[in-house]
Design goal:
The chain is α/β, with parallel strands linked by helices. The chain has a single domain (about 35-45, about 80-220), classed as 3-Layer(aba) Sandwich (Rossmann fold). It is built from 7 helices and 10 strands. The chain has a 6-stranded mixed beta sheet. The protein has a 4-stranded antiparallel beta sheet with strand order 2-1-4-5, covered by helices on one side. The protein is globular. Bound molecules: adenosine-5'-diphosphate and magnesium ion (MG). Adenosine-5'-diphosphate (ADP) binds next to strand 2 and helix 1. The site of magnesium ion (MG) has 3 residues, from helix 1.
Length: about 220
């Protein structure tokens, strides 16, 4: 049996919209096993980012069960969520979300410092594969979009997280840079044994993942 990384059972989530509730997720069941790579598609505004935010602990569920790393996460305190994010999770957004006063290497090291870990061969492999070894002292705001997203991937994978959540990671990149980022992300998550859940509007990007989920009207279809 492969390990269950994330499991949602009958999860519902809505937001108050004036005086009525806008139901975004409606009794969603899903499970992510170690080694899964999943493309999450669906029309804009259907709740794809909300689902990722729930798994990352940035949004709370209204009802149902959320299991992360074999624990019931709905009951976690803030400190347990921080610990999970720091140790088990990598996140890559459409906006690169790097720490702009810092240079490339300090952005990547930041995660290791949070985890009391030292730079290892894996760090060297990441920056080499991602083609950023020559720019590690550059402030991140001086880099191109493609370069920034490669730094964001290094930062997301430096601690070999169990799970990578990627929300339209190529959304701000041109076709060629986007394809390069996808290929690197796939190779490196495989090397790190990291499970991937990626939101994308791109058929090409979805094609890089082994499975596909479609979210529409509160329900997920495989
Ligand atoms: N924090 C929030 N407060 C109120 N409404 C929200 C919030 N986050 C998302 N929504 C609403 O939930 C719906 C789904 O949003 P989102 O998850 O961002 O969709 P997607 O990522 O699929 O485009 C949208 O109608 C959005 O306006
Ligand atoms: Mg979104």
């Amino acid at each position: 049996m492969t390990a269950v990384i994330t499991q949602l059972s009958q999860v519902s989530k809505g937001f108050n919209d004036g005086d009525r509730l806008h139901q975004v997720l409606n009794c969603v069941d899903l499970s992510l096993h170690r080694g899964d790579t999943i493309a999450l598609t669906g029309p804009s505004g259907t709740g794809k980012s909300t689902l990722l935010n729930i798994i990352a602990g940035f949004e709370k569920i209204d009802s149902g069960q959320l299991q992360l790393m074999n624990q019931q996460a709905a009951q976690w305190q803030d400190s347990q969520w921080s610990q999970f994010r720091r140790a088990q999770l990598g996140i890559v957004f459409q906006q690169f979300n790097l720490l702009t006063p810092l240079n490339v290497i300090d952005n990547i090291r930041f995660v290791l410092q949070l985890n009391n870990q030292k730079w290892s061969d894996w760090g060297d492999e990441l920056i080499t594969q991602l083609g950023i070894s020559d720019i590690i002292t550059r402030p991140v705001e001086t880099l191109s979009g493609g370069q920034q997203q490669r730094v964001a991937i290094a930062r997301a994978l430096i601690h070999k997280p169990a799970l990578l959540l990627a929300d339209e990671p190529t959304g701000n990149l041109d076709e060629a840079a986007g394809q390069q980022v996808m290929e690197l992300m796939c190779q490196l998550t495989m090397a790190a044994n990291t499970t991937v859940l990626m939101v994308t509007h791109s058929e090409t990007c979805a094609g890089y993942m082994k499975r596909r989920w479609h979210l529409e009207k509160g329900h997920i279809h495989e």
